[in-house]
Design brief:
Length: about 220
């Protein structure tokens, strides 16, 4: 599943270091308002230079795409990363400006049903039967500091008995337990656990969950 990371861009000014004397910044690097990049993601950024002076972008973690755009992909052991903008000024001098970003690990993913669920592990949650009608399945990144969107587009649901035997299996499109499946859950007296897994989603982040944990839902009375 191919996905692309679209980071909400907010322009902000960063202090620069000039090779000779202190001058106002000539370059503005737009990434995000928190000065953060994440490991495992291609973090895109844009560069604007005052008066459109010629410049070169450098950095150990900087990659240039074929279309001329740039992104930062930090190394796994990095705590910060730097982007250097080398600018050729009109008076034939060269100015080097440094932009520093903090590097953070990817956050844990929480798999939720009606906002209850698992964080990077299997779990069992108790839920009244009535709450399963149109119950919503979502994926949330814990303490992720950038704007993002993850939309669940499908999942598999099993009904099992006390022995763990599968009674019914459903492949569901969308992110909610539909009415017909809900009716089967209500009317099947032998089904004491509802199991949700194989969650499929789309995202504006360049990542995927290789294997989603099981969410076990135990039916309880109100």
């Amino acid at each position: 599943m191919k996905k692309f990371l679209l980071v909400f861009l907010v322009s902000f000014s960063l202090f620069a270091q000039n090779e000779t004397t202190s001058k106002p910044n000539l370059s503005l690097l737009s990434l995000n308002k928190l000065n953060i990049v994440y490991k495992g993601l291609s973090n895109p950024f844009t560069v604007n230079v005052k008066d459109a002076k010629p410049f070169i972008i450098k950095g150990d973690d900087v990659v240039q795409n074929n279309d001329g755009s740039y992104y930062i992909k930090p190394k796994s052991n990095a705590k910060e990363t730097k982007v250097f903008v080398e600018i050729n000024t009109t008076d034939s001098t060269k100015v080097s400006e440094e932009h520093i970003f903090r590097v953070k690990d990817l956050p844990y993913a929480a798999l939720l049903v009606n906002q209850k669920g698992c964080i990077n592990s299997e779990c069992t949650i108790d839920m009244p039967v009535k709450d399963l009608m149109n119950a919503q399945v979502t994926v949330k990144l814990i303490d992720f500091l950038l704007d993002y969107e993850i939309k669940v587009i499908g999942f598999r649901l099993y009904l099992t008995n006390t022995k763990g035997e599968t009674l019914e299996s459903y492949d569901i499109d969308g992110n909610k337990i539909p009415e017909d499946v809900y009716e089967d859950i209500v009317n099947n007296d032998k089904a004491n656990l509802i199991i949700i897994h194989k969650i499929n989603f789309t995202s504006d982040l360049g990542l995927s969950i290789a294997k989603t944990p099981l969410i076990r839902i135990r039916k309880i009375k109100e």
